[in-house]
Prior knowledge:
Shape: rod-shaped
Number of helices: 2
Strand order of the largest sheet: 3-1-12-6-9
Largest sheet: 5 strands, antiparallel
Order of helices and strands: HHEEEEEEEEEEEE
Distance between the termini: 158 Å
Helix content: under 10%
Structural class: mainly beta
Number of strands: 12
Amino acid sequence: MMLTLPTLCLIGILHYYGVTATTMPTMAGSDHPQCNACCQGQPGLPGSGIPGVPGVPGMPGNTGPKGDIGNPGQSVTGEAGPMGPIGRPGQDGIKGERGLPGLQSPPGKRGPSGPPGPSGPSGLSGLKGEKGDNGQSPGQVQQSAFTAVQTSRQSGSAGDIINFDEMITNLGSDFDLGTNKFTCRIAGTYVFHFTIPIERYSGMVIKLVKNGSTVIGGTTQSNRGSISSGAVIHLDAGDQVWLVSEYNVVTYLYSVAKPHFYGYLLYEG
């Protein structure tokens, strides 16, 4: 129990008069206000002692109980700061999954043709074809050829058919000495040629005729000479070819050269 200054004074007085602490009634904190009033003196002057040295820090106290949850804080959005410098390129990421096909775009314009590419490998052999028709043996080849000559001097009027009296060749018997006409038996392309020596008439014309129409003609500008001409024409089966004089004509003979007319099948079809 801390003793106040008035209490200490009272203890000193009682000790002076022989009152011991054992016989002294308890004053301090007595229920008698009279005693408290008479025993208190005037407050003393403040002490002028030097402050003591600060004590050693005490041991840390025990952890206090958990405090209540505080009120939620308010978020405040600040102003955007300036853009920072461009960072270094990152590493390649993992390849993503294949995306869905996009919509088909309209066809573009046709580009220029490229250079020819290299030749490709040979293709597979095709299927065997069907058996063809039977061919013709050499003995079955269609033939048609003739050579007709005059062996004697002859004369004729304008528009007459030139007559021949001897056959050197007549394969197929397609030239008739009775009519002096060639009748086509095999449709195809034919070669015809004639040489007719004449006398007395200058400007004489000899014509090669097909079915009554002139194909080609030959002439001479002298009173004695030869008229030669020819043509390659196509004939159908039944067509006829012969020679016709344009004016009156008189033929003459050399010892070797004779009036002649020949023709032959070049190819069928």
